[in-house]
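[Target chain]
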Amino acid sequence: MAQVISIHSFRGGTGKSNLTANIATSVASQGKRVAIVDTDIQSPGIHVLFGLDDSDFTHSLNDYLWDRCSAKDAAYDVTALTTADGTPAQISGSVHLVPSSLKAGEIAKILREGYDVGLLNDCFHDLIDQLNLDYLFIDTHPGLNEETLLSIAISDRMVIILRPDRQDFLGTAVTLEVAQKLDVPNITLLVNKAPDIYRRETLIDKVQAQYGVPVGGLFYENDEMLQLASGGIFWLHHPDHAFSQEVHAVARQLTAAE
């Protein structure tokens, strides 16, 4: 059975899409068949990390929601990634991406008319069946809205990303309460963009004590990430970096939970 993993943050700017792309690709490197769906329809962006732009899309999630294509037609095989020196990455599994449209007209249509949120559920199930997936990662819209709540409700596992920031801490408490009321079976926290003045153990202990939920990883701010500027998958460009090692550790945790 495929595992559905929603990756969420209460506020924007947490690095959610970057972590989603890196973790999903790391899972695929373990020989797993993985897909990512960008459900942040109002402000899509994860496709950039895989070297795609809007001109590369024949179809997008928007087309599926408007009954213009099948789920499989909106999924792009992005497994052929490269490392920093341009050589092919060694990924034994596969990665497919379902992007949302960057066209202003498509975004405006969604904002103006909405869509049948139940179709998202159909899309997820269709992708699992049509691509024979092991893992489906849902990159959600920040905050809590109808499509995000659906994604959370159908997930086998939820990963919540937060920064060591008071606003993030307060918002994460709300998200956790909602997820627990929706009976999400496994919830993991990831702390991202932590300044290096924080000791790892101290910060992890503080977050776990506040929420009573395990912290699966802690990622420090680093110059290499800023320099890459969303120009690729970080752990492929910097495989020995501490950030990349933490990505692998999180990926192993997720696959160990099968």
Q: What stands out?
A: The chain has a mean pLDDT of 93. The radius of gyration is 17 Å. The CA atoms of residues 199 and 205 lie 10 Å apart.
